[in-house]
Batch of 3 targets.
Target 1
Amino acid sequence: MIKLVASDMDGTLLNEQGNIPSHFWEIEKNLEEKQILFCAASGRQYFNLELLFSSIKNNTIFLAENGALVIFRDKVLFENSMSKKDLKEWLQIASSLQNVFPVFCGKNSAYIEKTENETFLTEVKKYYHKLEMVDSLEEISENMLKLAICDLNGSETNSYPHYKKFNAEYQVVVSGGIWLDIMNQSTNKGVALEKIKEFFEIKYDELLVFGDYLNDYEMMSCGKYSFAMENAHPKLKEKANYVTKSNKDEGVLFTIKQFLK
């Protein structure tokens, strides 16, 4: 019997307009009635996820910042902040590349350096509800959960080759078409999801999990019923135990309904 549903957001649960499908709420009510937990597992900021699921906040586990922060009912269940010792070099690389913008992700807010690039500003505001502009990211005093890189020229082919050398010490992952995340080596959605399973006493065959991109890769090993979306990255499809319909065709909701029958 399923006791936990964990789903990525963008390209997975959310539709192509970045919205939660309208009949998700009816399905979530069915999950609640059957005492099945729901986890929003995303690279997004906690405050952004909290806003998306404000009506069911007390019934939602928030796995934010690709696993660097897990919150349930305003209580931090897990947090994994990182060293800033290489931040200066990361920022220098970003500034040397065209259309590449770093985002300092803290627990209390996200921070970007002052810019008038409207394309970037529109993109970053989709994922970060609490966002501050500063003169330099090196001046931020709060702990860093991750450094996100918004690469308008394509993260996998443009910026990743410049950051992949840090993989020996950090987790450097392509998290979307124009997004790259640098985190602690021990930070990923899979590690965070295992912490959630332990906290709520969820077994391997009691988890239903969905994802579409490489930042979902480790999650696919956490549960027997791991599903990659039809629109998922080829490597994720290889890793998952199953493939479901695309986010456009509401594959997450379709699959959950099959398990609720």
Target 2
Amino acid sequence: MFEISSENLLLQQVANDKASAIAHIAKRLQELGYVEEGYAQAMMAREEQTCTYLGNGIAIPHGTLESRPLVKKTGVVIAQFPQGVAWSPNEKAFIVIGIAAKSEEHLTLLRKLTGLLSDEQRIQRLILARTPTDFIHYFQTSKPSITPALITTHLTTDNLLTLTAENVCHLQQQGYCNEHFLSDVMAHQSLYLGENCFLNDSAIGNLENGISIAKSETGKMLFTVAQIDEQLNSLLCALTPQILQQLQRADKNEMITILEKLYKGEPLVETGDGMLEGTFLIKNPQGLHARPATLLVKIAKQFPCEILIANPDNGTDFVNGKNLMKVLTLGTQKNQHLHIKTKGEQAAEALQALEAAINDGLGE
């Protein structure tokens, strides 16, 4: 993802023409160490190939494929031209985003801009912003990914097409997707997650990150995801059978609480018996073999509380998290999950330490 800071911004700028604007932006890209000298010419060469004006006053000049050797590292410079710069016939650019990309990292930014282009009010705020703080706020502000308006419960149907239509209707009404999203998501089969739960999404028509959920009276549940970047991936990876069961039992407010914790990377849930639990993705290329398992058990032994671990993907029972051989019997492979429960003194600290170690790769 692109991080925008004040040094990436050029506010209250004036340029006589497109070439001057691009030269100014390229100079700043070079000053910040993103590109070598000569990148401005590459950006103008791209304009000769294809105009980079997107619409609604936004342009995204960038270099050609042949100019990638001039890019030292991926980055952007955003220039604000309140009076506008003539960019294409009969079109002025007011927000010009100069992009230096070593490969395809800039696609994340382009997906973000897809949502921005449909929000004329935000664009006007960006054009009129006087301070870097205001500009960054308006640029990064987006719709909440999890909101009551996107969740429907107690539906009287279990039909997946009807549930899909319900979810997409909410997403479209709230500005998370457009009409192309509906036709594409309807054309593809939903993914079965287990526990009578399903997920679908679309490669096109996404405007903002958002998850719409339709849950029937019988407990059948469909997640429909609109996604412009990778921010929702950790939440989606955490939808293990245990989490899905919790969501099925929960009311709308409880569902939002669970999903927000997962979204924030805080999948901690206190059960009725005072036990804390969380579910974490194993990213190690060879799974939880002896070396990372040894580190996991070593960390577990540092805490006095009870620690139990299971592999929900393999359907295993919980084992003693302080016993190396027991942990190895879980047979955890890459992209599978560990469901960890802690109870007693320093239970929260233990769970947080184990989560941090797993997210860091357990020494690998």
Target 3
Amino acid sequence: MTDSASENVDNAATNGHASQAHAEGRESDDAARRSADDAARRSTDDAARRSTDDAARRSGDDAARRSGDDAVAEAAERAKSTGGRNIPQLPGLPLPEDTANLRLGPDLSASMLALLPLVGVWRGEGEGNDPERGGDYHFGQQIIVSHDGGDYLSWDSRSWVLDAEGNYSGPDLRESGFWRVGIDGDDEVIELLLTHSSGIVELFYGQALTQSSWELATDVVIRSQSGAVVGGAKRLYGIVEGGDLGYVEERVEADGALKPRLSARLQRYIG
């Protein structure tokens, strides 16, 4: 190979290496640029996402705050008519007076705090189902939940049948008893002992589902000699929207099925 040819080969090799290096440099620059673009895009997306999340959180907090403020305002408005009332008292007893108003009378026992929202007098209407009556019917109801500072709540419920026009048609159910709170290990157990005017005695056990809802089921049902024949029952009570007391009762029928028996929504009248 001549010197000239050798120089040409060397130049070609040098130029080839230079071209390859230049190409690799462009690829490196492109990769760096894409990496920077991706990082910037991710940073922008993350910032947008955080901004959206923050906005949603603020919106949720504002909604919750408005909802809480509305609930407090509604409770304050209701208290204007219900807060000064209480159940009547008979004078002359040396005992603490019963009260259905937490603003008046003795302090509620600390053992009853799980049931605090129930205290009051509640009035309203509901729907019942009684096969012996021919099926569904409408009723009015009053429930008095009171205390005297002891480790129990007193319970008294009366209902009456309403006709198709909503007028009184006759008496319906009546029950009285006590709510208590027991302890099973680390758990609170809600107890409800009831005596019915129909000749039935029931013991319910259950638990608080939330701070304002309670679910119970019968453990024992006893009937007197003249009492009605009934099966066990399950009840769910809760403070619902607007501060009302709502409940549902299901009861075991002759075929062994648990079927809806009573449901009502009652407004606070005292407390």
